[in-house]
Design brief:
15 helices; alpha/beta; 6-stranded parallel β-sheet; single chain
């Protein structure tokens, strides 16, 4: 059995954190013995990993910082776990794990994981830029670097990420969890106090400029102004604080047709209640989880041209330039203008695409194949 320690920045709900959890839910425990170290805290994912009988340690780091104290704590915990392989997740954890693995018994191989795209480095915080550049210089010493999108791999290779094994393993989708929810359309409208025939365009993601939900709300307002009776629903962490979202409400022009919802533990019901799902991100996405999840729920979807969204959707008519509210409005009008049966057919096509290319079971097997290969190569070479 191969001992693997996963090192991750945090275990709050997010794309990387949920991807790790869903991967560990399916990993073959007769072949792999996993443990997890979070640099920051346990968040809401940590207890769920413990429920899977997976050891979890949180080191209490400050967000965005790698201090000598945290490196010492990480070194101590990795020595205690004595893994045969380290799988790290995201820039800060990749760098931290690299810096301490030399003092871990056997100096185990390390696979980095990069979940982010780099359309422009200037969008990143200055400290994150330093970590990215430091990672690029040290990437040749990692046995593998896993990217979750082809776009991300190309962008990072262009600035110097060159491990002996750069490869793409996309995010996987749990098709048992993310599937059409019966009655969700009617329930969402009841909860919002809307008529059954109301048309809902939605986005999901944290309250952050990168997600550019202001553009999505504006695009819905444009489409509505031109004859479509639309409502916009946005759900995610940060939208429960009314004072933080006043500027978004003011700029949208939607008035009471903009509905802001807090982060949900049953997000599949929100997806299933929509007539159209839209990713509006301006930068930073590698593999937009929410896009694949909404598609898996048979919701017709569209996206800005970020990360591997064009490959996931495989429909140029539903890809628009980042930041372009007018283009997003045209795409919304195109899909909403279809009759209900045509929209349902498009949604079924989207779910079929996720089933064909992004099943969580297939993604898990690709990770397990990589891990086995890295450990075998180390064993044969020692």
């Amino acid at each position: 059995m191969i001992r693997i320690t996963h090192v991750i920045n945090n275990l709050q709900v997010g794309g990387a954190e949920l991807s790790l959890m869903r991967l560990l839910e399916r990993v073959d425990r007769s072949r792999f013995s996993p443990s997890v170290i979070s640099l920051i805290g346990e968040g809401t994912v940590g207890p769920r990993l413990r429920d899977l009988d997976i050891p979890v340690v949180a080191l209490g780091a400050e967000r965005g910082r790698i201090s000598p104290r945290i490196l010492a704590a990480l070194r101590r915990e990795l020595r205690r776990a004595s893994p045969q392989l380290i799988q790290s997740w995201m820039y800060h954890s990749n760098l931290a794990a690299h810096l301490v693995r030399g003092s871990v018994p056997g100096k185990p191989p390390i696979a980095w994981n990069i979940r982010h795209s780099l359309h422009e480095l200037r969008h990143e915080k200055w400290l994150t830029r330093l970590v990215i550049k430091s990672g690029a210089r040290r990437s040749r010493r990692a046995e593998a670097v896993v990217f979750n999108s082809r776009v991300s791999m190309r962008q990072h290779e262009a600035i110097g990420f060159r491990s002996p094994r750069n490869l793409v393993i996309p995010n996987g989708v749990d098709l048992d969890l993310f599937r059409p929810v019966a009655g969700a359309r009617e329930e969402l409208r009841r909860s919002l106090g809307l008529a059954p025939e109301a048309l809902l365009v939605g986005g999901v993601g944290r309250f952050h400029p990168m997600k550019d939900h202001r553009m999505l709300a504006r695009a819905v307002a444009i489409a509505s102004d031109e004859g479509q009776d639309l409502h916009c629903v946005i759900a995610g962490r940060g939208y429960e604080v009314e004072s933080d979202t006043r500027a978004l409400r003011s700029a949208s022009g939607l008035g009471d047709r903009l509905h802001l919802l807090p982060e949900s533990t049953s997000i599949e019901s929100i997806y299933s209640g929509l007539d159209l799902f839209a990713v509006s991100s301006r930068w930073g996405e590698g593999f937009p989880n929410v896009l694949a999840e909404a598609m898996a729920c048979s919701v017709p979807s569209l996206s800005t041209d970020v990360g591997d969204a064009p490959s996931i959707l495989d429909d140029p008519r539903r890809i628009v330039p980042p930041g372009d509210a007018e283009a997003m409005a045209r795409a919304i009008e195109h899909v909403i203008g279809l009759d209900a049966e045509s929209r349902r057919s498009l949604g079924r096509r989207d779910r079929d695409r996720i089933h064909q290319h992004y099943r969580m079971e297939d993604v898990t097997e690709r990770y397990q194949g990589l891990w086995s290969q890295l450990v075998s190569e180390r064993t044969c070479g020692s």
